[in-house]
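Help! Submission page says 'invalid entity' but I think these are all valid:
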Amino acid sequence: MVTIKDVAREAGVSPSTVSRVVRGQGKVGKKCRAKVQKIIDEMGYRPNTNARALVSQRSELVGIVTPALHKPFFGSIAYGAEKAAREVAFHVMMRNSQNEPEAEIDAINSLREHGCENIILHSKFGDPDTLKTMAEKISGLVFINRFLPDLASRCIWLDNVSGGRMAADYLYKQGHKDIAIVSFIRENEDQRDRINGVKQSFAGHGLTIPTENIILREDAGTEVSNMQEYCTYAVKELLSRDIRFTAVIAYNDEMAIGIMNALFDMGKNVPEDISVIGFDDLDIAQKCRPSLTTVHYPIVEMAEYATKLSLQMTLEKSEAPGRTHLFMPSVIERKSVKNIN
Amino acid sequence: MVTIKDVAREAGVSPSTVSRVVRGQGKVGKKCRAKVQKIIDEMGYRPNTNARALVSQRSELVGIVTPALHKPFFGSIAYGAEKAAREVAFHVMMRNSQNEPEAEIDAINSLREHGCENIILHSKFGDPDTLKTMAEKISGLVFINRFLPDLASRCIWLDNVSGGRMAADYLYKQGHKDIAIVSFIRENEDQRDRINGVKQSFAGHGLTIPTENIILREDAGTEVSNMQEYCTYAVKELLSRDIRFTAVIAYNDEMAIGIMNALFDMGKNVPEDISVIGFDDLDIAQKCRPSLTTVHYPIVEMAEYATKLSLQMTLEKSEAPGRTHLFMPSVIERKSVKNIN
DNA sequence: CTGTTAGCGCGTTCAA
DNA sequence: TTGAACGCGCTAACAG
């Protein structure tokens, strides 16, 4: 390993001068700078990040904590963050949390051991008070896909209510007055918000959505163990109940696809017999058949934005601006919804 | 920030003793250890990784360099690596290379600045000599999904020839004697290997695959700009040429799905009219319709293995074992291939 | 079993 | 404009 001393000796200058050249700071004579730079290139010198972080008390690291990196949605977060980080020559360190609050804390702590001040956290279930305490200690901690009133200015999140409303508005315009909703848990924020958005939209048209038209995973019991099983269960329920619906709003794309498959299996065609709309706009939405009409979640942009915000907070030592960062979804029209007007 | 000194002072011992307790190494009196541990917990002391890495000359980091993390296949590599890294309390740093050899080198260099000795590199196009030079300098550099004869013991790769053979064997058993192949470039290793595997299989049955039955992206010219366009082009070619085929072997799942969609668009049903088989076994393969029969690529396991191998090489300072690490694919039977016997 | 000493490679004073 | 000296927090070698 070639150190700053080696370069200094070779160039016949002091280590401090080399340091100035490397960082492009301070006053260095033009000739001197050129000579040192030449030696640096020749010797292939690269500053030791650890030593640097040790002395300057900050590492050039962005940490990202998400539930499961192999899922496309979270992979996109990592992708967006890496993109923004690279622009300022920062590195990305990642950690999976499995959606377990304990694992999240652990991940954050170990990130901090590396001197990582910039952390993008995707926490759906972390305790607000705990998170607040952490935020006070970590100047670059920001939250993606969650809104915490006390930490509003550090939250980068999506307007799920609008997303739900947009999906419902779109369906309504296509002539669908009777719809069903398939989601997970009633009380989870995102899920509740999206459902509320749908209800708002329909209320605006003087319509209500009967309780029987809403299927929730929490009501499915233990008989279903994975997404497809749940979707099959949901579709069976819907079809067996004495209700009328021409379209299904799924919580997300994965579920929408599961529902389409279940419908096909039961002899229903999408969108001819029943329309389906998703949420997220994952890659798969354009690859499945019929391609999925869905609500676009600008997750890559959000992750980039979150990273830049975090960086700005630590680099410019500026507090987060006194506002929250709310992104808007948008409907992407594809082939899974039929116009029945 | 609470340092080792703070703990030492508080506990009335020397920093070295605290260090020994923290690392669980060396001899420390039972009572003494308990007391120090108590103070550590109370004060919330966490060792500074940078200082540690500086003095011990090694960081507890695994670097992973892949072309594009947001794609499920590469996301799985990151996932597997993180899993293995976490077991030994290492962190993962990642970098996207966009498949550009320059960016790869750059990524590796910046990883090294962090003192990262463990690097999992997914490089399809990197120059073998350059890679060899890097490997000599980086004791924990391993290659995933590539075989370099000179660095065989550091390569974790898949037997693509067998994969191609398995796909073809499976098709043959299902009664398909006339098949088409859709792939990218003739000379790329993986693609050539898989095609060769297919040819071997058929040769074993006394059959050959006519050149006209093989469509390559490189022959498509510039008119196609994305995967779906290419698949549509490929299917059109196949259908317009005066050839006979009952099944299509696609280079990978993404392509297989594009091909299925193109076939549907042209009024052909899968698998009734034409069967399709993919490669990779991405999540999407079980979600698409018909679900895709494909060749399973054990990429998560391979990434875990690669990480453990790298760790072993650096931690135990042992050279890589004198053998290469070749994983075998396997056929996953789903619904996109019809038995026409 | 425990403490003392001496750096790891670098950035940042402060003098010169 | 340059250099010398110091210390970031920690581990390792050596004494005791």
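Support: the input was valid. A stray whitespace character was the problem, and the output above is from the cleaned input. The first strand of chain B starts at residue 61 and ends at 66.
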